[in-house]
Amino acid sequence: EPVVLASGWSGYTTWVLTDDGVLTVSPTEQLYNGKCNMANYHKVNGVLTLPWGEYADLIETVVIEEGVNAVGQMAFYELKNLKTVVLPASVGEVRNYAFKNVTTLQSINLENISIIGEGAFYGCTSLTEVNYPAFTTVGDWAFAHSGIQP
Q1: Which of 9, 47, 86, 101 could cross-link 78 (Cys pair, CB 3.0–4.6 Å)?
Q2: CA 52/CA 78 separation, integer angstroms
Q3: pLDDT for the residue 150
Q4: CB atoms within 10 A of CB 110
């Protein structure tokens, strides 16, 4: 049975990190404009502070649960051991730089995504398998310097 290492809030979602390297993001009853989105993160004076930041190197799997509508900006930026990302049908947007420089991610299913933000998978050098609908809006440099050649 996995042991909880840390937990908290991210925007309108909650998160739990267990000692098996799984970060689970869950929806809450709180909505903004009818959506349940993760927080957007930003660098302040060159430093990105994520709520799970001190455990970043332990995270191997991110599971976003049904009911969450967007992956937050820079939420999983430079997680150096992230290998698996599970997105539910409810997630329609992966925001800017969400997975930038995650060099261990090899594939991701984006079949329900309508917006892929700027630089979302920039620098994901191992990423070679991605599927998303033809109508998806893909931001500038979304797959630049990744294993995906558009």
Answers
A1: 101
A2: 12
A3: 60
A4: 19
Coil, strand or helix at 70: strand
- Between CA 21 and CA 81 the distance in angstroms is 9
Q: Strand pairing partners for 94?
A: 71, 116
| For range 1-5, the mean pLDDT | 96
Q: Can you give the pTM of this predicted structure?
A: 0.95
Cβ count within 10 A of residue 89: 9
From residue 27, alpha-carbon distances to 68, 90, 94, 100, 115 in Å are: 5, 10, 16, 23, 20
Phi, psi of 57, deg, nearest 5:
-70, -15
Helix or strand (DSSP H, E) at 43: strand 43-44
CB 143 within 8 A of CB 150: yes
